[in-house]
Amino acid sequence: MFSEVYSEGSILKDQQLEGKSCSLMGMKVLQKATRGRTAGLFSLIDTMWPPVMPLKAPGHGQTCEEVKTHVPPPSFCYILSAHPNVGQIDIIEGDPISKLYQPPVPHFLREILQTADLSTRCSFYARVIYQRPQLSSLFPLQQTEIWLMVTDVTLQMQDENNSGLPKTVPVCVAPSCVLSQEVREALTEAAPHCFLFRDALRTQGRFVCVERSVLLLQKPLLGVDSGAHSCELTGPVKLSELDSITQVNSICCLQGTVVGVDESTAFSWPTCDLCGNERLDQSPGDRGAFSCRDCSHVVTSPVLRRHLQVFLDCPTRPQCAVRVKLSQTSIASLLSLAACEDGSYEVKSVLGKEVGLLNCFVQSITTHPASCVGLEEIELLSTGRASSGSGHCPRP
């Protein structure tokens, strides 16, 4: 029989109970959950079935006989909670790790992707190389889903068999996934981190961290070869090319020829040349100067930032409109070819220009009334720029 206990303790305290024999006092049954109504819970129970200890049934005598036949996994589970002021969970001191304990077994991402997708739980180590949205310490982390783009050494290796596996995979962290303070802080840093994704749900071709999934921050161990547990990559991060199987909320690389510019969404705005803040106020009596709200700096030479989206003719997506929101660096490079003497820009001057290699986040994919892919150029969290996963995108 399985039961799930709702605990009022902290995440750290709950993790200290893992694998231990405990005594439960003052518990009450909230409900009897069934497999049909609580699929997420039973997908986790299935990872712990069958038990590592032989099942026993009462025999004719005083002893129990081992059950030799196959026993199906349980179809129900009790949800327990502690009565206020009297309920508690205590570790039974002196007991070794319980023989019933089955820790999750991490697998390489390549192994997981090559197995059938049957809405199952899986565990893996992976390095986060991009996340969306970009978080800050003030961001309400538990009120929105987070998309993490991850990879490991098995996805980054050369694919001589052309298996069609992606170089990176997206992981959706749902609001129901409870994150520890350590993980929260790591996700607010603009730096790559390695995590153990425990009991993530793999369903409908994607990974989702939901309730009962656990993210654990992995810290590098100097001089230790952790084998399958290693998140270290052996070279620059490679991305898969944009192609017909690229999915929304994933990342890819591409290059192509500019065939159009979205002039209706093109605009520019000044920013502070000291702190980069966009909140500038016009200085009284001097139309050429601004005052920065953040650092109070008098801005006489603001840095101009631009918003520009272009349409590309992309060899890997023929007969498809590929729309890319460019980064500031790519915009500056492209417009340097189109500047007129008066400082204006001619659209025709950028048409036919080659752009790439671009690292992009896939914002949207539509097929009706026409095939169109919406992308945004991004900067990866890993050091250096990414290289491609095939011969069509050369190293920059």
TrEMBL record:
Domain DUF4503: 1-380
A Pfam family assignment: DUF4503
The protein's name: Scaffold protein involved in DNA repair
Top-level taxon of the source organism: Eukaryota
Lineage of source species: Eukaryota, Metazoa, Chordata, Craniata, Vertebrata
Cross-referenced PANTHER family: DNA REPAIR-SCAFFOLDING PROTEIN, DNA REPAIR-SCAFFOLDING PROTEIN SPIDR
